[in-house]
User: Fold this.
Amino acid sequence: MSDTDFNLFTHFSTQFSAHADKELLCTSDEHSLSYAAIEAESGRIANYLIDLGAAPGDRISVQVEKSAECLCLYLACLRAGFVFHPLNLGYKKGELEYFLGDAEPSVVICDPANAEMISAVVELTGAKHVLTLDADGAGTLTGGARNVSSEFETITREKDDLAALLYSSGTTGVPKGIMLTHSNLLRNTEALVDAWGFTENDRLLHALPIFHVHGLFVAIGCVLLSGASMRWLPAYDAKTVIRFLRECTVLMGVPTYYTRLLAEKSFTPEVAAQIRLFVSGSAPLLEETFTEFEDRVGHRILERYGMTETNMNTSNPLHGERKAGTVGPPLAGVEIRIVDDDGAQVGEGDIGNIHVRGPNVFIGYWKMPDKTEEDIGEDGFFNTGDKGLIDEDGYISIVGRAKDMVITGGLNVYPKEIELFIDDIDGVKESAVIGVPHADFGEGVVAVVVPSSGSRLSEETIISACKSDMANFKVPKRVVFVDELPRNTMSKVQKNVLRETYANLLSN
Assistant:
C-alpha cells in the first residue's frame, strides 16, 4: 500500500487484488459481481471518459439511479483523478442549473429520462458531453465503454487533490460546493474500518442512496478497504431488508430505517441474529427508538455523528457502552472542542458550538474563499454550526443544529432556500420554513406563510409550485397561513415559537 499516493482507489486496490474472484456485491435480483468484474468495468469507464477528453481534476457530474454500474463510475473517477460530483436524482431543472453552472463539469451523466432536460441545462454550462446511465446499468456511458480496454493504471494523487465535490443547500439561498480530497476520504475510512471492526468476513446490507456521504463514502468505503461484500438494494424497503438481513453482518441506515423495521411484526431476534452491528446516522436517533430496538431484537444501535464537510467525526464504541442520546467520543485522529460564541472553551457538560479538526475535515468551499476562511479558523478547526456538549466520559451529545436546518428522512433541507422560492410566488408577502416532528421521517417540512392583502392563495397552490421546481424531499408537507410571523425585539423571526406552535401538525 502506497504511503505517497493518496488516491483512494490505490488503497482499495489491495483488496481488489486479494479478493479478485470474491463476490463484491449481489443485487436484490441476484445479479452477482466479483471484485475483478467491478475493477474491470471501472477501468473501461475510466478509459472511455479519457477518450472523450476528460482530464484529472475535471468534474464529472452524476445524476443517476443507484446501480452497480454507478459504483463502477465512482471508482473510475477515483482511478482517473476526476472529481466525482453526485447529485440527488430528485433535483429539478432550476436546481441543476445552479449546480452544473457552478461545478463546471466536463461530462454530465444522467438518467435517460432526463437527458433532454439535462442537455438543455448543459448548453448554459459548457460541459462537453452528456451521457446516460439507467437503473439497469444501460446507457451511452456503458455502451461507449463496452469495447474499451479494461486495463487502467490508477493516476497518482497528492494529499490535497480533490476526489469529490458535494453541495449543501445554502443557508443563505446559495448552495456551497464542499471540496473533499482523496486524503480526507482515505483517512476517515481507515478510522471507521478500525472503529467498527470491518473485516473481509463482513457483508453489508447496502440500502442507502449513493449521492451523499453516508451511502457513498462511509458504507462503500468500509467495504472496499476491508475486502468485505455487499447485498446491494436499489432503495430502502423494510420487508426487503428483513428478507436479506439473515445473510448480512452490518446494516447502516438513517433513523427512519429503524422505525420502519420496528413497525414490521416479522422483524424478530431470529432475523437479526447474524447482524453484529446496526449503525445509525444522518439524523438524530430518538432514545425511545434506541430502547425499543434493543428490547425487540437485543441490539444496541451504534449512533455516530458526521456531516458532508467532515465525513464522520464521532462514534459510539463497537466494544463498550453505547449511550442513547449521544454520538460517542471523537474518532481516532479527530479533535472536537465545545466553545462559546467568543471562541472560549466551555466546561464539561456545558452547551456550546462544536468545532472539529482532523484529517477528515474538507479543505474548503468551491469558489468561496471568504466563506472557507469564515468557517475554518487559522488553527484548522471547522465551525460545524452545531450545538453540543461533552459529558464526563467524553461522549458528545448534539443538542441543536446548524442554524434552522431540517433533517427529513436523513436528508438535509435548508429553510432559506425554500423561503426564497415561496416568497417569489404571487400573493406571498413572506414565509418561514420549519421542521416539525414526523413519525416516519423524523422531521417534516412545514411552511408558515403570510399572504399579501387580498391574496387568494391556497395550501395546494404553494405545494404544487414547490413540487414543480424542487426535489420532493424539500417540498412542504403542510402550509399554514398566518397574519404575521412572530418576531423578537430585533425583528428576527422566532422559529422556535413556530416549531412549538406547530409541533403536532404532522402527528394528526
The chain has three domains: 8-182, 236-400, 406-501.
